[in-house]
Amino acid sequence: MAGNLKAELPPTLQPGEPAPDFTLPAIHKDGILSLAQYRGQSPVLLAMFRGLYCPFCRRGIAQLGMTAEKLKGRGVETLAVVATEVERARLYFRYRPSRLSMAADPQMSMLRAFRVPKPEITPEMMEAIQTLPVNPTGELSEPKTIHEVANQLNARDGFEHTPTDNEDAERQFPQLVGQFLLDRTGIIRWVNIEGAEGLTGLGKFPTDEEFLAAAARVS
Hints:
About 35% of the residues lie in helices and about 15% in strands. By secondary structure, it is of the alpha/beta class. The longest helix has 19 residues, at about 55-75.
């Protein structure tokens, strides 16, 4: 992982493959969300996130809330999948509302089904994480280690971890996240995986332009 992260990871589901079916509890409303609700109706962008303890994921969710309106104008629906308990997610978004359709996936079943990598923890990986300077969101004045960046962003947000957040963080490390664009038949047409270019890509989230360019392939 310290070098070419992409080369060291197992293969993720790729464009041209069918998306696995799923049924998950909705966060933004009562009820459930499933792939069947989208199949035959519209293309859908599935954006998978770690638990809310992750400041990069919280920022990605906030950005995606605005991007989703633009995607909808292209005929593409958006679903964010957050790897935490539904009660925790509903509490968080009660105070930080989002216009996104969201589902809770505390067992990370979607990340597993789409084969989003969770790299093996090695001494080399830990050394790299503890030493490599990064600034994935561009908010800091200078690059720092990924943990230092996360701590500073949490402090800026005034984010206080709950026991659920702590459990999620311990259980999920070092889970990567990804985004999958499906056509209306449920076939994957575009994939983005965090850290595909190496450790410097950890915490980065695609831009509006990248999402809209992907949407042009299915709309």
